[in-house]
Amino acid sequence: MEIYLIKIIIAHLIGDFFLQPNAWVKDKERKKLKSAKLYLHVLLHVVLIFVVFLSFNVWKVALSIGVLHFVIDALKSLFQTKKNARILFFADQILHISSIVLVWHIFYKGYLDISFLSETKTWFLISGALFLTMPTSIIMKVIIAKWLPESDDESPKSLQNAGKYIGILERVLIFVFILTNHFEAVGFLLAAKSIFRFGDLKEAHDLKLTEYVLIGTLLSFGIAIVVSFGISGLLK
Length: 236
Hints:
It contains 10 helices and no strands. It is an all-alpha fold. Helix 1 (2-18) runs antiparallel to helix 3, helix 4 (59-79) runs antiparallel to helix 5 (85-108) and helix 8 (162-179) runs antiparallel to helix 9. Helices cover 77% and strands 0% of the residues. The chain has 2 domains: 2-108, no CATH class; 116-235, no CATH class. It is extended and about 65 Å long. This is DUF3307 domain-containing protein. Keywords: Membrane, Transmembrane, Transmembrane helix. InterPro entries: Phage_phiKZ_Orf197. The chain crosses the membrane at residues 38-56, 62-79, 86-108, 123-148, 168-192, 212-235.
């Protein structure tokens, strides 16, 4: 039965990301329910269901997907603004996937096995990954706050909170690499970050900044490695 779910998801991915030009997206945002591209986009999703199944016997599935897709996209176009566009994008995709699972369940008696949520190992993994995101960022901020270099108005500004999110991503990647026994990838990640940082530090000519970055990087990697090995030990 899972093959039917996969086919419907493939049809969705093709329709939403491969066969939807930016011009269609802008037209829907501008004209909302009056946009002809909205209806063409929905029709395309219906056609794609027939294509991936290579059968017209799935017309009920195709029609259901089309109606639900229209409702979700219509609501998105009505409520979307510049401020909430990013949030609504992810909400839109979550609703689409949820509607796909619902249609799959109704027509193919599909059932998602979520028994893994009752397993202790799953919650160990979740707790470890969560700890390496915001909690670790706050812990690191408290530890290295006293070494924070004085800001220079003439120095180039970085993206807002970029360092925090880079740290979160690198720690989560280390978590995944260690739990999957790809220790060489951790070294590659450290080397890659060092290369990208080398140019900035070289141009800065600031010893304090260099030391601050090194402390932050090593502390971030160190915490991620310790936590990852700890969770790995608990899983065994």
